[in-house]
Structures are given as C-alpha cells and as structure tokens.
C-alpha cells in the first residue's frame, strides 16, 4: 500500500470524510495524497482534524452544482451552509473566518474581507481540497477558523499528451434557465519537462426558486460568464531537484438586468422582476484574479540530511459589487488587492533510529498585501492599506515506537500596516439622513506576537487512535471595515488590535473491522479580543471587539459493507459566547452570522454494475433559535434572526460507456423544496430575505484520452 502523504502545515490527523465517500472509485482511503507547501508526511502522524475533498468527489459534486461554495458545504462538516449567491458571507469554519489559498497563494483579503475568496477558481482544475480546521498561523494573516487550500491538478501520466474534455448543460424546468459549461485539460511529460494546461468556461442562465420565480438580482450568479485558465510547467533537474512555475487566472462577469422587488422579512421573499435600472457602471463579478507562482525543491542538501523548499508568488485580485443608493449620491464598490510573497523552509533530520526519529523545519515567510475598497467613481470607502509581514518559524517533530507522534512549533509574527489619509463616505442612516464625512489622518500600525502550536497523536490500535492539539492564529482581520466607519480623526484613536485565537482540540479516529470508519472531535477556541458584526441603534453594521469563546463537536461515521456500496454521514454542532463588557460575564452569544446551525450530511453511493455509479446526498440544517426580537419593534437585530430547519436531497449518476467516454447527470434539490438559505433568516433584513434555487439538473459528457 502506498504511503498517504499530508501537509505538515496542518500539524494534525486527516479527517477523510469526503474520501471515504469516494472509495468505490479508489483502492484505499490511505492512498490519497495531500500536498501543501510545507512538508509531506504520513496521514497517521497528524494530531488534529483535517478534511480532504478528493478529485473524484469534486467531479461528482460538479455534476450537481459547479459552485465551489456548494461543493464545500456538502463535503466539509463544520463549514457553514452557502448563500447560493456570489458572496460567501456567513460561510465560516468553526465559527470563525477562514483563509482561502490556491496552491498556497492567499486568496482572502483579511484587511477588507470581500467575501468572494471561496469563489476564486473553477472546480474543474482542482485535484483536491485541503481543509485544515482550527486556528492556524502557518500561512499568516486570516486563518482564525482554519485554512481551505485548493490544490490544482498536476500531470500524472508519462504520455507526451493526455487530456480530459467536458461539456455540460444545466437548467431548470422554467424558461431562460439553460446554462452551459465546457472545459479542456491537457497534460503530459516530455523528457524532464511536465505540463498541465486547462481552459474552462461557464455561462449560467436565470436562477429561479421552486415556483419558477426569479431569485434576487443582488449578488446573483445568474446570467454570468465564468472563465478559468491554468498553465503549470515543471522541470526535474535531477532526482532530488525540481522547479515548477504556474499561472492560474479566474474571472466572472454578470450581464443580469433584473429589477429588484424587495419583500418582507419572514413573509415575502425579495425577488427579481422586470428590467433593472442599469445604474451599474461596471458589471458585477470578479473581473480578474491572477495568480503566479514559482516553486523550487531540493531534497538533498548538506549530505542528504536537509531538504529545501522555496516558492514565490503574486496575486492580483479585483471584485465588483452592485449599485447601492446607501452611499450619498449612490455608488458601486469594489475591492482591489495585490499580494507579493515568498516562503522558504529547510527540513533537517535530527536523528533516525529504529524506534524513534526526529526532525526540525525552519524558515521564513514574507508577505506584502496591498488592499483598498473604493467606489467605481474613485471615492475611497477604506483607505489604502499596505501590510508587510515577516514571520520566521520553527517546527519540531518526534516519532516514537511507530505509534506516538509529538509536534510543536513557534512562529514570530511581525506585521506593519501603512494606512493612507482618507475621507469617510457619507452613508444613509435608518432615518433617511446621511452620516457626516470626516477626514481621517492615516499612519503606521505595528503588530507583533509569538504564536505556538503543540500536538500529540497516539496510534494505539487500528480501531482507536487519539489526538490532541493546541494551536494559535494571529490576524488583523477586517481592519478596513473598522477604519471606514471611523468617528475619530486619526487611526491612532481606533481599536485596531489584532485577533489572537487559541484553539484546543481533542479527538479519536479509527477503523472497526474492514468496513466501519469513524472520527469524533471536540474543540474550544478562545480570543481575548474577537470581532463580530453587530447592529448599531441606527441599524448600521459596526465591529464589536470583545472576548470570545467558541466550542463544538463534529464527527463522521462511514460504512462499506460490500465493494459495491457505501453509506454514512457526519454531524457538526457549535456554540459561541462573548463577554461584551470584558467583565467575565459570558451570557451574551455570538450572533448567527458566525455561529452556524447544527448540520447533518449523509450519503449513499452504489455501483450496481461496474459501469454505473449512482448516489444520493442529503444536507439537513437544524433550526437556530438563539435570540429574541426587540420587545418594542418586534424586529431581530442583524445576525440574530430565527433560522428554521430545512433538508435538501441531491441525486447524481454516471455511466462509463467505455474507457474513454463517460456520461453523468445530477439533480440538485430533487424534491423541488421551497426554502431559504440560512443567511436570509439570520440577517433579519427585508432585502436579504430570499429563496434558494428550486430543482436544477445537470447533464455532462466527458471524453478522456
């Protein structure tokens, strides 16, 4: 059996939830390889919970819905449910903000979270998704709840050229909903060179609810063109050295021109109807997301005792939102972010004996993040923010008796943010008047801290393996939102302290007989100064800074009674409390914009005959009743609305015509259930009370050569 490899960045044990679902197409769960930019290691040496979404699971979910936020909600137990829109607001991981990466390149914009980082790549080019749950500092700013790393496809064949062609159609049983997608992947190897080239395009139709009514045009993925391109070239200098360069580009553009009919919260949904006002100066979407990366590996330094990994990257990102009359004179905002970074790390063996081994990894991360939010007419909503982060680190790993693994690490965060002068925007208040614009003097903000992690895993027997870990994250998340609502004339008078999260985790995993796999994990994360959106008396959103505690449990159970069938599921639950006055009273709860309702994922997958695979997925989100409405107005505050439960079933099937051709079909929301996404309820706003899509089908034809 091949060794399973996993990134040392996790410092923990892999939850193979999505991969067990894939076992009808693979020989063994243990053969799945997970690679990030730090260190490869055996899956049984990781002392915390990680979910790996494998390639065939991604392709299977793609048959149902190509939206990556939907794929994630059905494969990651502790991730919040998606909104069905272009924004991933509320889709937190373990109640905190997640850091999104593509091959280790940061996609998130923590300085001003634009909530479009999950939708930054087409799933057709993803080989697997690594989801590292719990606070982590291994990639720097923004990973309070964990990390989602999209690992792109690599060349797997020795042929000079091989490929995968996919053509698909999507639609509902209502006019105007027809969509089309196509992708072409080419890969190969020529002497010491290998390459992967991919192009993908998707055009969506109108999105309608279970009654055939157009969904809201706000943040709508309807009538949108999505483009994705990738080129990756590698060169094996010799058996120990390799260099690889890649480019990944993504863009989306909507030409939807629907009018907006605002509904009534909890009663009538907000819908799209008629013709829009054509007020946008720029189509909604993400006009560009360019990612460049070069990577060098040397596995034989200093007599073979040390290996080196170095990679440098650049990201250029711009996303555009719809027109809003909440600004004085109206306007349309965008978020622009450029990142330049480099990482290098050495891995040195300390000793290697029969029953024990030791190694140390050390290096430096360098990141420059330049982020700003403006209106399309040039007015600043946040100031220019220019962050530089230098972070040296050291990690130590000790293996004893082939059963016990101990890991520990330290990382020194050293961040500097230059903030430009700016005028705050005048925005509408609840009484119809506008706030007063004030001039804010910028300056330099400095942050530094030493963060640590420690983990232990004890593989007692195949049926019981225990793991526990402590990890920290360090972030200055949402600095831009704090600055843009400034009521002070200088940034030095604002509360901009960073968020340091302490994450404690304990779990057990194992295999009972040959056909039962399980894992159960409990966790607690604390922060002395967290950050949540709360509603001010004039119903404007502000940032609340106060001590926080988030805790929860999650687990999965999978059965494979025969080679032709498997089934199982997962459960996740969490709670979050805060001490608003920092007086030790934690009776207040963190609102539902971060604390998701309990979620059950279940599936059954069968192969009744060799060419045919069929499956059903279920998502059940429980109700969430944690707050009371205002006693005078009867209205819920933002993030505190009651969320009813809902259950959705998806169907998928594929038939292998021969070794080259495959036909796949999928149906989302099989029973055409009328329901609203969680955000429609907890946001407690008329304009955001929207329906989810009704039944939607996909047909896909695939040719492999």
From TrEMBL:
Signal sequence segment:
1-18
Annotated ranges, domain TonB-dependent receptor-like beta-barrel = 239-670
PROSITE patterns hit by this protein: TONB_DEPENDENT_REC_3
Its BP terms in the Gene Ontology are: siderophore transmembrane transport
- Its primary localisation, in coarse terms, equals membrane
Q: List residues of the TonB-dependent receptor plug domain.
A: 43-147
The UniProt entry lists membrane topology as: Multi-pass membrane protein
Determine the domain of life of the protein's source: Bacteria
List the Gene Ontology MF annotations in alphabetical order: siderophore uptake transmembrane transporter activity
Which InterPro entries does the record associate with it?
Answer: Beta-barrel_TonB, Beta-barrel_TonB_sf, Plug_dom, Plug_dom_sf, TonB-dep_rcpt-like
The keyword Transmembrane is annotated on this UniProt entry: yes
Would you tell me the Gene Ontology cellular component terms? Answer: cell outer membrane
Any Pfam family matching the protein: TonB_dep_Rec_b-barrel
UniProt keyword list = Cell outer membrane, Membrane, Receptor, Signal, TonB box, Transmembrane, Transmembrane beta strand, Transport
Q: Where in the cell is it found?
A: Cell outer membrane
Protein's UniProt keywords contain Hydrolase: no
Q: Which family does it belong to?
A: Belongs to the TonB-dependent receptor family.
Protein name listed in UniProt: TonB-dependent receptor
Its source organism is Chryseobacterium antibioticum
State the organism's lineage. Answer: Bacteria, Pseudomonadati, Bacteroidota, Flavobacteriia, Flavobacteriales
């Amino acid at each position: 059996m091949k060794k399973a490899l996993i990134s040392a960045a996790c410092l923990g044990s892999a939850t193979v939830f999505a991969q067990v679902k894939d076992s009808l197409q693979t020989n063994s769960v243990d053969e799945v390889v997970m690679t990030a930019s730090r260190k490869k290691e055996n899956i049984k040496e990781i002392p915390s919970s990680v979910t790996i979404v494998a390639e065939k699971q991604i392709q299977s979910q793609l048959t149902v819905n190509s939206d990556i936020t939907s794929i994630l909600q059905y494969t990651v137990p502790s991730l919040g449910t998606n909104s069905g829109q272009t924004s991933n607001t509320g889709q937190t991981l373990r109640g905190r903000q997640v850091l999104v990466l593509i091959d280790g390149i940061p996609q998130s914009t923590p300085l001003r979270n634009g909530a479009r980082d999950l939708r930054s790549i087409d799933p057709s080019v993803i080989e697997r998704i690594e989801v590292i749950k719990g606070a982590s500092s291994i990639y720097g700013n923004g990973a309070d709840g964990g990390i989602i790393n999209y690992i792109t496809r690599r060349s797997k064949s020795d042929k000079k050229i091989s490929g995968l062609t996919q053509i698909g159609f999507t639609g509902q049983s209502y006019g105007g909903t027809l969509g089309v997608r196509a992708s072409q992947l080419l890969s190969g190897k020529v002497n010491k060179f290998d390459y992967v080239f991919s192009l993908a395009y998707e055009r969506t139709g109108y999105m309608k609810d279970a009654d055939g009514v157009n969904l809201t045009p706000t943040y709508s993925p309807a009538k949108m063109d999505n483009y994705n391109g990738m080129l990756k070239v590698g060169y094996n200098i010799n058996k120990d050295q390799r260099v690889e360069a890649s480019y990944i580009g993504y863009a989306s553009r909507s030409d939807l021109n629907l009018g907006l009919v605002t509904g009534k919260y909890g009663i009538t949904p907000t819908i799209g109807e008629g013709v829009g006002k054509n007020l946008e100066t720029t189509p909604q979407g993400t006009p560009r997301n360019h990612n460049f990366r070069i990577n060098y590996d040397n596995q034989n330094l200093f007599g073979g005792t040390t290996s080196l990994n170095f990679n440098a990257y650049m990201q250029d990102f711009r996303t555009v939102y719809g027109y809003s009359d909440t600004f004085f004179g109206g306007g349309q905002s965008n978020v622009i972010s450029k990142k330049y970074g480099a990482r290098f790390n050495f891995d040195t063996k300390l000793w290697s004996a029969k029953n024990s081994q030791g190694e140390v990894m050390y290096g430096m991360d360098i990141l420059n993040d330049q982020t700003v939010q403006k209106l399309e007419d040039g007015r600043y909503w946040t100031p220019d923010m220019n962050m530089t982060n230098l972070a040296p680190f050291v990690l130590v790993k000790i293996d004893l008796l082939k059963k016990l693994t101990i890991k520990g690490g330290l990382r020194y965060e050293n961040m500097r943010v230059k903030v430009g002068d700016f005028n705050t925007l005048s925005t509408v208040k609840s009484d119809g008047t506008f706030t007063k614009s004030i001039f804010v003097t910028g300056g330099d903000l400095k942050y530094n801290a030493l963060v640590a992690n420690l983990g232990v895993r004890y593989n007692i027997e195949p049926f019981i393996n225990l793991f526990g870990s402590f990890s920290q994250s360090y972030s200055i998340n949402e600095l831009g939102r704090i600055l843009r609502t400034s009521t002070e004339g200088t940034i030095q008078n604002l509360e901009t302290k960073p968020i340091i999260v302490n994450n404690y985790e304990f779990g057990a995993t194992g295999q009972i007989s040959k056909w039962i796999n399980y894992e159960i994990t409990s966790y607690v994360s604390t922060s002395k100064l967290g950050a949540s959106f709360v509603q001010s008396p004039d119903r404007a959103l502000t940032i609340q800074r106060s001590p926080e505690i988030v805790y929860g449990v999650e687990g999965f159970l999978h059965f494979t009674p025969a080679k032709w069938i498997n089934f199982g599921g997962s459960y996740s639950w969490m709670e979050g409390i805060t001490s608003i006055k920092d007086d030790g009273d934690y009776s207040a709860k963190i609102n539902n914009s971060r604390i998701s309702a309990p979620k059950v994922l279940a599936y059954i997958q069968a192969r009744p005959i060799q060419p045919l695979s069929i499956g059903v997925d279920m998502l059940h989100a429980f109700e969430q009743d944690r707050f009371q409405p205002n006693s005078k107005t009867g209205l819920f505050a933002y993030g505190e609305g009651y969320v009813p439960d809902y259950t959705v079933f998806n169907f998928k099937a594929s038939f292998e015509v021969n070794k080259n051709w495959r036909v796949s079909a999928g149906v989302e929301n099989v029973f055409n259930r009328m329901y609203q996404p969680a955000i429609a309820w907890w946001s407690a706003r008329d304009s955001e009370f929207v329906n989810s899509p009704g039944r939607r089908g996909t047909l896909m034809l695939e040719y492999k050569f």
